[in-house]
Amino acid sequence: MPQPEAKVIVLTAPQARVTAGGSVTFSAIAKDASGDKINGADITFESDNAGLVRAVANGTATITVRSGTAVAAYTVIIG
């Protein structure tokens, strides 16, 4: 049986600010049109900072996740 298509992604991180040299671990959950979690959903993480989730310098980094037609983004402040 095929998986339902993801309609929503819930993207979370323990904090929105990190110091340079620190790191942030993200969590993403794909949900279907009914809001039910899709176990084993194919979720792709992207970053505007060469794919890094480790903070290397002051500024911001945006992490984007995609699954099906759903997209979510999270901006981390570094500094």
What this model shows, in words?
This protein is an all-beta fold and 79 residues long. It is 0% helix and 43% strand. The radius of gyration is 14 Å and the shape is elongated.
> Structural class, please?
mainly beta
Contiguous uncertain segments of 5+ residues? none
Q: How helix-rich are the residues, as a percent range?
A: under 10%
Rg from alpha-carbon coordinates? 14 Å
Biggest sheet, in brief? 4 strands, mixed
Helix and strand pattern: EEEEEE
Strand content: 35-45%
**Could you tell me how far the N terminus lies from the C terminus, measured between alpha carbons in angstroms?**
47 Å
Shape: elongated
Strand order of the largest sheet: 2-6-5-4
Helical stretch count? 0
- The beta-strand count equals 6
- The average pLDDT score comes to 85
